[in-house]
């Protein structure tokens, strides 16, 4: 451990660790940082999304005797990107680094990253995909596929060509972060892409190779939901924020609902149900599907559980029913205005109004 005289000096580097259910990794990570940063004045800020396993309590217990350790416990909020932003804002250090709390990121390269910042870099990215790097610690072919798909998608739209835009391990100047803060969407799990798509072309970016280690405790957070949220964040950045991330996700879920509606309606028709009943069944299944997907994807950080889930479902059904009535009313009004030769325009206008209504009410009443 560092001597007390060093512990009292202000940190030059803040390490932000967004975490959820990482209680067994807290102490090993702090010991690893202490070993890697012997010659640096540092602090670590664990931003915990109210983990039920007691992660925040474990950090608080260590922070009671180690002033370099802090915890920021968030209640009622979830999401890696927003956690990182809040951690940044809680720091006053010159440099800020982000790394996962699962010990898969190699803390020993932090001194190299700091040296790059000292030499003039604005951002330093730890990459698994340059010479000397390795992605072997990513468990399973499915997670390799998700990671590779995200990298390819990001590289096609980013101005700054990174070998590993999906990396969750990077360091940057705090002044650079503050300059980009007003442009960040803060959505999803991959804030590096959010930062780099907001950064000017003149940004100096350096990559350092690192080996992605196998996870020793806890569970990986990378799944299909993360990739879908990543895709909506990319669309948000490409539209320069005119279409909010949640609205894009809500609209995509709505398209899935249309497909489900048609498929179930046809299946019910094949089973002998009359068209009106088949349509009713298809609509009901589509509404249930939309609610479940929105609860798990669009409003992941506000997910309803227990009694709130069932109350939200009832309200969602009512909202969608009113949206359907508004959809039909607007379509008929437009049809009356432009003439019966424009059924497609009338239908589209009604659909847009229906989606906007459902989104607005869902965001303000159901997933508050």
UniProtKB/TrEMBL annotation:
InterPro entries, per this entry? DPM1-like (IPR039528), Glyco_trans_2-like (IPR001173), GtrA_DPMS_TM (IPR007267), Nucleotide-diphossugar_trans (IPR029044)
- Provide the topology term for how it sits in the membrane: Multi-pass membrane protein
Q: Where in the cell is it found?
A: Membrane
Query: Which organism is the protein's source?
Result: Swingsia samuiensis
Query: What Pfam families does UniProt report for this protein, alphabetically?
Result: Glycos_transf_2, GtrA_DPMS_TM
User: Of which family is this protein a member?
Assistant: Belongs to the glycosyltransferase 2 family.
**Which GO cellular component terms are attached?**
membrane
Protein name per the record: Glycosyltransferase family 2 protein
Record domain GtrA/DPMS transmembrane: where: 250-367
Which ranges does the record mark as transmembrane?
247-268, 274-293, 313-335
- Mind giving the lineage of the organism this protein is from? Bacteria, Pseudomonadati, Pseudomonadota, Alphaproteobacteria, Acetobacterales
Name where it mostly resides. Answer: membrane
């Amino acid at each position: 451990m560092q001597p007390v005289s060093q512990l009292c000096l202000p940190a030059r580097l803040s390490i932000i660790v967004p975490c959820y259910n990482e209680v067994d990794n807290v102490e090993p990570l702090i010991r690893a940082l202490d070993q890697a940063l012997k010659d640096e004045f540092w602090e670590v800020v664990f931003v915990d999304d109210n983990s039920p396993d007691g992660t925040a309590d474990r950090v608080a217990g260590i922070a009671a005797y180690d002033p370099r350790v802090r915890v920021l416990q968030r209640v009622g909020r979830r999401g890696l990107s927003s956690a990182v932003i809040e951690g940044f804002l809680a720091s006053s250090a010159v440099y800020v680094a982000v790394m996962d709390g699962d010990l898969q990121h190699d803390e020993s390269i932090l001194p190299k990253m700091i040296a790059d910042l000292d030499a003039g870099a604005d951002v330093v990215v730890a990459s698994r995909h340059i010479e000397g790097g390795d992605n072997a610690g990513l468990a399973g072919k499915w997670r390799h596929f998700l990671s590779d798909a995200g990298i390819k998608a990001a590289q096609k739209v980013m101005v700054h060509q990174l070998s590993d835009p999906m990396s969750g391990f990077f360091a940057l100047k705090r002044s650079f972060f503050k300059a980009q803060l007003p442009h960040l969407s803060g959505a999803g799990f991959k804030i590096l892409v959010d930062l780099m798509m907001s950064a000017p072309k003149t940004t100096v970016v350096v990559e350092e190779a690192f080996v992605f280690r196998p996870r020793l405790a806890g569970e990986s957070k990378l799944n299909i939901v993360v990739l879908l949220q990543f895709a909506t964040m990319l669309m948000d950045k490409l539209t320069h924020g005119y279409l909010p991330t949640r609205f894009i996700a809500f609209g995509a879920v709505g398209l899935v609902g249309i497909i489900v509606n048609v498929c179930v309606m046809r299946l019910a028709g094949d089973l002998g149900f009359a068209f009106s009943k088949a349509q009713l069944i298809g609509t009901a299944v589509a509404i249930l599907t939309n609610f479940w997907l929105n609860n798990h994807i669009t409003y992941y950080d506000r997910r309803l559980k227990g009694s709130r889930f069932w109350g939200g479902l009832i309200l969602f059904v009512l909202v969608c029913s009113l949206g359907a009535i508004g959809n039909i009313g607007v379509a008929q009004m437009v049809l009356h205005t432009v003439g019966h030769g424009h059924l497609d325009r009338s239908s589209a206008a009604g659909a847009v109004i229906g989606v906007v209504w459902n989104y607005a009410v869902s965001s303000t009443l159901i997933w508050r």
